[in-house]
Structure to design on (383 residues):
């Protein structure tokens, strides 16, 4: 088992400041969140935490200096699985505080201002809105600072008093054998203050719940699952703390004509059998205007002669815009050859005449299939 001083890179006679400085540097370097979940970094991170949990405690450090690992294993924390994670969390709160505050949702100073909570709002938009971008009005229920008491929670003209139990720290510490456990003050709930005469408007909370109307700009090209952050539009902070943020999660409604594949738009368009056979022009829906596309969002598509169902025609630059560049996707039109129905007697007569005139050259796939099927039957039946 490695020496704890060696793990932290300090000498045995180092003071508390040097110990904390080395731990802070190493823990930030090997923190799993900064190393993409690397198992090696996670193992090193746990090793660093274990070493600091022992050496930062004067009693544990003295036992370790005298007896080595035997002096701390089992009696005051130590190896993996010994319940050290409570100590690790306490160490992190103490040592890193403001460094990791934003990463874990904000950390308030004891008894001081607290950052408001972040809010989530799920917003469903149409494909047209995602294509062109738009501005949407939303109504968000959020906490706001009480104007009557300026967020203090105390009746106007009065002020909160310092909690006598924790002395304003908001935390109390209790010793249990070799361990010292810190928890929120039960009397003031961790605020460090007591409100003896609460505000009538907010009933001592310092905040009120209210619906707020916001304008949200949807950028062109957003995709399903995109997230928009509105800084400072979340819940109000406690005791004058900053507001949290509002995160808007977008979902794009399914469209009755288009499917989306990245920046490309896919659309299946029926084509009359005669147009598919002879070639010609058809109209397809389009989300963008411009050349060869009128205000009704129709675009002309040239159908090659002899087109079959499933054939695609790609229209460059007619797809979705990109969020991060001027690039645009394509509109991919898939042709679906439609067989005519409810034919008149004359139409049926003409169709029979056409059928009699058409041979293998006009139906190459049918001829190929019949040949393969014939060989299959011969192999099976032996005839």
């Amino acid at each position: 088992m490695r020496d704890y001083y060696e793990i932290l890179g300090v000498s045995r006679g180092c003071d508390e400041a040097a110990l904390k400085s080395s731990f802070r540097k190493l823990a930030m370097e090997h923190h799993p969140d900064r190393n993409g979940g690397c198992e090696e970094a996670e193992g090193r991170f746990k090793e660093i935490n274990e070493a600091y949990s022992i050496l930062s405690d004067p009693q544990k450090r003295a036992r370790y200096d005298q007896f080595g690992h035997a002096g701390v294993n089992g009696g005051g924390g130590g190896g993996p699985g010994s319940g050290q994670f409570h100590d690790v969390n306490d160490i992190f709160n103490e040592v890193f505080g403001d460094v990791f505050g934003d990463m874990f949702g904000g950390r308030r100073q004891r008894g001081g201002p607290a950052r408001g909570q972040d809010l989530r709002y799920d917003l469903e938009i149409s494909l047209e809105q995602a294509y062109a971008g738009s501005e949407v009005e939303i109504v968000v229920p959020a906490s706001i600072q009480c104007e009557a008491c300026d967020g203090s929670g105390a009746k106007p003209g009065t002020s909160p008093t310092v909690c006598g139990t924790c002395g304003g720290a908001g935390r109390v510490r209790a010793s249990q054998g070799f361990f010292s456990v810190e928890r929120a003050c039960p009397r003031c709930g961790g605020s460090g203050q007591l409100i003896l005469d609460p505000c009538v408007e907010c009933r001592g909370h310092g905040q009120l719940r209210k619906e707020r109307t916001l304008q949200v700009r949807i950028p062109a090209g957003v995709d399903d699952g995109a997230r928009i952050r509105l800084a400072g539009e979340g819940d109000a902070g406690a005791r004058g703390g900053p507001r949290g943020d509002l995160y808007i999660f977008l979902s794009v409604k399914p469209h009755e004509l288009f499917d989306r594949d990245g920046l490309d738009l896919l659309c299946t368009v029926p084509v009359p059998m005669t147009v598919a056979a002879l070639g010609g022009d058809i109209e397809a829906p389009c989300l963008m205007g411009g050349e060869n596309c009128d205000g009704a969002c129709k675009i002309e598509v040239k159908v090659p002669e002899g087109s079959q169902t499933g054939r695609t025609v790609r229209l460059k630059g007619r797809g979705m815009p990109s969020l991060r560049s001027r690039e645009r996707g394509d509109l991919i039109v898939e042709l679906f050859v439609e067989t005519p129905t409810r034919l008149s007697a004359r139409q049926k007569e003409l169709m029979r005449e056409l059928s009699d005139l058409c041979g293998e050259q006009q139906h190459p796939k049918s001829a190929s299939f019949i040949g393969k099927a014939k060989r299959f039957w011969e192999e099976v039946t032996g005839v």
